[in-house]
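Entry:
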Amino acid sequence: MPSFEVPDIPPKAQLKQETENNQTVSTGAVTFTVTNKTGQGLSGRVTIEPQGEAKAEWFSVDGESERQFAAGGTHTFTVRIKAPPTSTAGTYSLKVRAVAVNDPDNDFAESPVVVFDIAAPPVAAPKKKLPWWIFAAIGGGVAVVAGVVVAVILLTGGDGTKVPSVVDLPFTEAEQQLTAAKFTVVPENDANSDKAPGTVTGQDPAAGTEADEGAQVTLHVALGVEVKDVRGETFAVAEGALRVNDGLKAARIAGPAGGKAPETVIDQDPLPPARAALGGTVKLTVDPGVAVPSFNIPTTQQVAINALQQAGLFSKVATSCEPTGTRDEVVRVDPNPGTFVAKGSTVIVTIRTLSSSLLQPRCLPFDVRVISPNERFVFKPSIQ
């Protein structure tokens, strides 16, 4: 059984054409997640498996390809595709493989096949030529026609369309607007923006610029930062990991007491593989645990155990052999009242038993018992 799992990812990656050193290259990306299915930490590595005629040099992985996975932990990987100008137009494909570093040949999982198309380089549109009669009219020296020529040039030479303003829009919405205006959209990651991931932070050409049909418009898109999975950590550890490693803030939300150790993170928003704005906030829901109830000590067993049951706690009755005092009275609770513990934990309730002699303290054996939160408890005096 493989230790890792690669969930389904989009079956097709969309590539864009962009100009690099006066040549056309095809670029794109596909994001996928890898999950450690085991109950222990593992070192995992991803590799890219080109299929068919695809070339290994076309692909790269953002960040480290080998990472440490917590038990049940997930990492997000982005594969970059960059096909050179010499690539033949057509359909290509790739898979990704996640392997356990300690046994790469036998312990691995593969993703479904992802396909992508490499389009032929665009053919430059021929430049418009002025009609022959314009030159004839100019050659004839007809002033009125010359005026008409100027008007024709102004009317026919201004065929460009104004580039709409799409800054601060989500990339998908910006892409729709530009595509509708018959422009070619090329996204570029903006890793330094503190705007929400996927937000357009800049455009080139600028809004209002006239450009020909099919012209390329580069959109700078906020990349944000990868949100780590911090579920299962204490809030303090999770908050530190997000702040130190990713520059993110953490907001604590108290969830229901469900049996985890107090302050354990049980949920987070956003969840991996989502990304968050640089310097943004991740909401962490924690199990607050329950407080050991407070009551006056010494007290009766009925009072103490009923209070612990109402808090969802087990009671373990132990004894303290003492020469004087009230028999069966509760003299100590461990942990102390007010201490937060996991719901369903066991609290030791110590009761007093009396010795048979002041000179030779000796208490009769006592059967230690555990009382559940759902058990009906009725106090019965001990026999000594």
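The mean pLDDT is 86.
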